[in-house]
Design brief:
CATH superfamily of the largest domain in chain A: PAC-like subunit
Distance between the termini of chain A: 65 Å
Largest interface: A-B, 34 and 24 residues
Helix content of chain A: 25-40%
Number of domains of chain A: 2
Strand content of chain A: 25-35%
Number of helices of chain A: 7
CATH class of the largest domain in chain A: Alpha Beta
Radius of gyration of chain A: 21 Å
Order of helices and strands of chain A: EEHEEEEEHEEHHEHEHH
Shape of chain A: globular
Number of strands of chain A: 11
CATH architecture of the largest domain in chain A: 3-Layer(aba) Sandwich
CATH topology of the largest domain in chain A: Rossmann fold
Oligomer: homotetramer
């Protein structure tokens, strides 16, 4: 039952805005925030260590051990931005509760006023249109602010209903810390074991609008194209395999008859 | 392992009486207390936040995020009434222990002297009579007081035997806080995925007698009628389906033979 | 993670000896200690409340609610005896650790010097001889003392190997509190859903020898006879049923052929 | 949630080096460190007691109860060595987190500067060569130091990928305590229910090189030979059994046909 935040550098802001990326449906938020960090190189100022992650470490290509942790970054934009990137979600409901409360307590202390969280809403297909983003807020008055970026609020209750895990709870508990909270869920089509880069891009575009920052989507666009080509190939291969299997089956049946 | 009570308004009473509604068999207590709150609009003065609920938030129709929590209300009746409405029961035995101890500690501080809890006892059928209510008490001397409202005590041990979850523990641990405790379990017939409004009404009638309050049962009666009509339809549909399935089966068998 | 000891009366002893009964194989220790308490009526001076038991309460025949707890008793014998009777064992390894450490801390404070725990060792049959009792000790020097009561030590390692749950840990951790510890395991034949009174009696006889107390085994002997008659009947019934089933089977086979 | 370290003797060192053995793949580290302790008889100066081990005690041949624990030893070599021998790994991720943090906190206080952990990497076969040892480090600069002992670093990421449990976490979290950390994983072939003495020897040879200590491998070599003879016999027996079974099967098929 431990959540420990290790500060390398003391950051204090005024009217800060908080955004986060963690694993979830399509890993959309993780990819969006991951790309933001890679591209804009915000200042890494603190680590979150916790007993609520799995007891495993990763080995980097250079043989360095990498523990599972949360990382806090500071980005100077029109408003001060505090970014949280989590390698994992807490592995129990109790852990989630403790994690989100410790994060809220810490970012409130830093000077954050607004907590924005991001995730995916699994859908089976999106045809010929960009994925929609559904929003939910800690107070109704916040809707106006985000509707102008194209976020949909009037269907969230019907389409989303409930949000499982840290992102809903961060936004929902924000109120108890005197903070504003909002969750944004992008439609995400499950893609065989790879993150959904298209959904991630939609979220990142929203984030850039909200933060009023410029962003070069070239790299992400390339990944989207690669991913789609890969999926196309997988589909073709699957189709080929199916054709083969059909033939085999026919032979088998002929043999039996 | 967190149970935190956030007070919006400081309420202190003398010789207070505590009643509660939480999910359980037929959700009878939840519906009874829910209706009481809706109708009499008691003062919502505190929230209970805890790590022992699921890590999920709900989205209201207006896109507001609603965390899972317990809510405390104050009702001015002949005696001061403290009402607890829980969105969920704790999700582990440890959580239940912590939850009920924190609630007892808090309501004792407020000035509660008597802890009344409510639930359902699953039965398979109730024919042509109102559901019975069985009682269990922290001290034998309390029985007399509730027998006059028609609560049955002499068969509780045989019919109920043990009570699982928060309601039995709230009443049983009351003694260790110097409080009186009693649990009331209404017979409840499991009704396909809908709460048992008839059982809820029986509990609410008992609550009104104990608290000496007037209550307009019109809305609840309407829900009971609607529910019974729905169940009637479901039964008819099931019967029709069975008839159809029987026909199908006959055809199939004829075809095989 | 709560273990709370509520003292009704402050008991302090010199050179005290601790014995306990909790559920386990054949419930032998529970029955032994339960009979001791019923017969000798020691002073009930404290209750142990904990989050490590199931969240359930029992209803007594008089409709009183009975929580699950541990009870401490004081018995004046040649040496002062502290008795613990537990309604349940802790429901996790963590709970067991906390429970036994809190008990050891408490009884050390009271003045206990020696911790004796009791349980059953499941065997498939005991023919024409009383059940054997195997002992294990926190320090080898303790063996001598108990060997004179017929406790077997030289085969314990081979026959028992390890002890699961609170009783082994109470005796094993005793050393870390500066106390002597010993566990006694009686051979116990699993008897269809009823406690093993014969094993319980063997333990109780040992306890009486150690504590140098007189005990009237009449009631327990009666229970043993009743139990054995019941088992005899069950066996006969089973045999009869088997005979019947055999006949049925024969008929069925004749019918098929 | 308890990790308690009981010190029998206060040990404080300068620039100490920490090594450990706990159960894991092939139990290689446990056997390596176990042999080191048996042979060199370092000073046993502290015990680690914890709620994160199973609630079980073992019975030694002399009927003494042995709790599951961690043991700390001090060895005087060229550098001061602190050895940890764990009877078990923590039984939850939370437990592992707490355990490794308490160990790191404690050994830092003692004066340890370098944390070396050992384990096995399961492989299916090793033919005609000694098992390879893969290394992972808390900081890349440490690689140079261990490469000279034949430890492989450039394939660790590809071959190992991640390390599950305490050994990876001890080395990975070392950094947060201002300590150097490294994990060494030896290739280990699963051998029917017996520890892998060959892998253990490879680790122990590495440990001796690092600590610059002499070690007599006679006993371990004997165990390796015994083990290999046993495995050879098992294999022969299996082959014989297979031959027998084949014959039986043939007969059975002949009988059927």
């Amino acid at each position: 039952m431990v959540v420990k935040i290790v500060e390398f550098k003391k950051i204090r802001v005024k009217d800060g805005i908080f955004i986060e990326g963690m694993p979830g449906v399509g890993n959309v938020a993780m990819v969006a925030i991951g790309n933001l960090i890679e591209e804009l190189k915000p200042l890494h100022f603190a680590d979150l260590l916790t007993s609520h992650f799995n007891s495993i470490v990763l080995i980097k290509p250079n043989a360095e051990i990498q523990i599972l942790k949360g990382s806090f970054y500071y980005l100077k934009a029109k408003r001060d931005v505090i970014i949280y990137f989590g390698d994992q979600q807490a592995n129990t409901p109790e852990g989630t509760f403790e994690l989100i409360n410790e994060i809220l307590k810490y970012i409130k202390k830093i000077g954050v006023k607004e907590v924005l969280t991001f995730g995916g809403l699994q859908v089976s297909e999106i045809i010929n249109r960009p994925p929609k983003i559904y929003g939910a807020v800690s107070e109704e008055s916040l809707k106006k602010k985000y509707e102008k970026y194209g976020v949909i609020f009037d269907e969230t209750s019907k389409r989303v209903g409930s949000i499982i895990g840290a992102i809903g709870m961060l936004a929902g508990y924000a109120k108890y810390y005197g903070l504003y909270g909002a969750s944004f869920l992008v439609e995400s089509v499950p893609t065989h074991f790879v993150p959904d880069h298209r959904g991630a891009k939609a979220l990142l575009e929203l984030i850039c609008k909200i933060l009023e920052i410029e962003f070069d989507f070239k790299k992400l666009d390339k990944k989207i194209r690669e991913q789609e080509e890969l999926l196309e190939k997988l589909k073709m291969r699957t189709t080929l395999k199916e054709v083969e299997e059909e033939k085999e089956e026919k032979k088998r049946l002929e043999y039996i008859q």
